[in-house]
Amino acid sequence: MIKDRYDLVVVGAGPAGSSTAKTAAKAGFDVLLIEKRQEIGDPVRCAEGAGKKGIKRHVKPDPRWISAEVKGSRIFAPDGTKLEISEERSGAEVGYVLERKIFDRVLAEQAADAGAEVMVKTPATGLITKNGQVVGIRGRSLGEAVEIKAGLVVGADGVESLVGRWAGINTTLAPSEIETCAQFLLKGVRNDDHSEFYLSNRLAPGGYAWVFPKGDGMANVGIGVLGSRSEGGMPIELLSRFVNDKFPSAKVVEVIVGGVPVCGPIERTIADGLMLVGDAARQSDPLTGGGILNALDVGVIAGEVAAGSLEEGDVSREALGEYEKRWREKIGVSLERSLVVKERLVQLSDEDLNTLAHSIKDRNISKMGLFGMVSLLFKTNPKLLWSFRKLFKSKG
Ligand SMILES: Cc1cc2nc3c(=O)[nH]c(=O)nc-3n(C[C@H](O)[C@H](O)[C@H](O)COP(=O)(O)OP(=O)(O)OC[C@H]3O[C@@H](n4cnc5c(N)ncnc54)[C@H](O)[C@@H]3O)c2cc1C
Known about the structure:
The protein is built from ten helices and 18 strands. With 396 residues, the protein is of the alpha/beta class. Strand 9 (124-130) and strand 10 form a beta hairpin.
């Protein structure tokens, strides 16, 4: 059963929390990983796409949690113009389509194997502070009120994070900084081995629709709409329209709704005695909405810095500045770049999007990465994409 003190308490057993807990436990620290739900990974709030290389950095591939392997992606402009990209250039969200109900559980098991205690049905409900420093959490465990002291607390509690707010960190998302999503798990989709992305203001204002094949005629089919662009209707209505149109005979097996932060890096992710990681720290990609790999990668950094700070006996905000520095070095530039591209893309009309797609559809883009393609688009359409010039300046 839960003790009343740990070196590290991690709130939230998603990819970020499990990765942090595993790293710190491996370093020999006494770690508690708590999850408010009774089953880790369920319900799934994700399209489950992730790059193979990135996943393999953290866990050995296992058919139990790989639903499908995809060979690349297709992007469709509003008029149906298709751009095809190979898997290795498709970015962090294409490669595997995961089964996150199992994947997230395996990650938590890895943390447990490394020595962390894992406790489900244990929501944190507040922080314990002493002289302005976080020194533990309050919560409930299997229905009982608990107070758990901690040398350090990590908030890995996802997009709806409260831990940051409790510690006085501003994690507020304006409507223009969140994609509101709806997704169906469909059976009876004639699908192959490509992920598909559909751009159109009519279909998904300020976002996109996706089809991620899961094998056996199953697919995650979803839509993300920018919170400030709800003029076309609720995401679930837009999704129903898309599905009726594209997969009229498919059956809905599951429905999910959820949000993705698309604000780019926030100002601060640490406080005295506390770090935020993953979606709680708004570390998902503002352009694609993908956050699994960043959560895993940054979780390792959080776990290492936690171990170092606990070892030194210094968990002040200054000491935890190491975490802030390292995660920004790792993913800060790519989050900033994605933010620039996203902010311009959401201003483009369907006509603009069609013009861009036509301008490169006959070029050999299949082996180009996202920024290679953006660079080509910029060169081909300098007037339309003038605001992208700062991307290439900062690169050089
Ligand atoms: C519709 C949709 C589609 C997406 N598709 C993709 C995709 O294809 N690829 C991709 O890379 N990313 C995708 N994402 C984003 C991805 O799901 C997240 O970026 C990723 O899960 C972040 O991991 P995390 O560990 O930070 O947070 P989460 O996975 O959200 O985990 C947070 C955990 O904290 C728990 N928790 C919350 N509050 C408390 C509390 N008070 N006490 C205890 N536990 C708590 C939650 O129950 C949850 O288990 C998608 C998101 C959505 C909504």
